[in-house]
């Protein structure tokens, strides 16, 4: 990491919320690795090797009439990411039941206490999509279930699934940072039933699950939906997030093609998380 060069984008956002949270989530899906919220917006970082001049063309909120967002960018010197993260990461609580915190935060009085050090991985619980997926997991019976956490990021959803009683959990992410970070967080939370893999949907043929969790961007979900459906047992549950309310119809159409029936929608600031049953 010491020789890695980064590009830093400084965004000014008016009004700040919910635009800043939406912007961070979209940038995370586009490959940005670290974020620092500021008084007037957010600074986002991406490895220079991963950067290209059109990196922002799929960031939909930049085209929104509801918010004014301007930005500048520059090549930056090496940053102490852990120090930046510790300075800006606050614990979060979902539905008074789950706390996602760092080791240096005080132990909470909630049923589920998840300790993570996300570093550059996506999935601290602050993003709308992760927050809603946590809610879906809280509202579903995981006792004795086999589970896939696809695009696991920090591993937070897999960790919560084990805390809720799942007995065989595969956590998969194609990003090496996420893979390594999930391994660390699984160990940090003393999980016994989670196996972490580096890869994508090509790892899934031959595997079968009671529950599949996929918090990924819309295009990958559409591309891999048939694989998710094939890996789900009859009567199995699929939780999906990583897309907007406007994308529900295209996601639902793709699910229906492969025998997945709509059950429920959760919504936060125009982001949604859907539940389907096979």
Task: Walk me through the structure.
The chain is built from seven helices and 14 strands. The model has no long low-confidence stretch (mean pLDDT 90). With 278 residues, the chain is of the alpha/beta class.
Mean residue pLDDT: 90
Count of helical segments? 7
Radius of gyration: 18 Å
- Number of DSSP E strands: 14
Query: Would you tell me the structural class of the helices and strands?
Result: alpha/beta
Helix content: 25-40%
The tally of domains stands at 2
Question: Per DSSP, what share of the residues sits in E-state strands of 2 or more residues?
Answer: 25-35%
Report the CATH architecture of the largest domain. Answer: 3-Layer(aba) Sandwich
Would you identify the regions where 5 or more consecutive residues have pLDDT less than 50?
A: none
Here the CATH topology of the largest domain equals Rossmann fold
Task: Write a brief structural summary.
The protein contains seven helices and 14 strands. By secondary structure, the protein is an alpha/beta fold. It has two domains: 6-85, Alpha-Beta Plaits (2-Layer Sandwich); 123-277, Vaccinia Virus protein VP39 (Rossmann fold, 3-Layer(aba) Sandwich), CATH 3.40.50.150.
Question: Would you spell out the secondary-structure blueprint of this structure?
Answer:
Blueprint: E1 6-14, H1 19-30, E2 34-38, E3 41-47, E4 68-76, H2 81-88, E5 92-94, E6 98-101, E7 112-115, H3 128-138, E8 146-150, H4 156-163, E9 168-173, H5 176-188, E10 194-198, E11 209-215, H6 218-231, E12 232-244, H7 248-257, E13 261-268, E14 271-277
Parallel strand pairs: 6-7, 8-9, 8-11, 9-10, 11-12
Antiparallel strand pairs: 1-3, 1-4, 2-3, 5-6, 12-14, 13-14
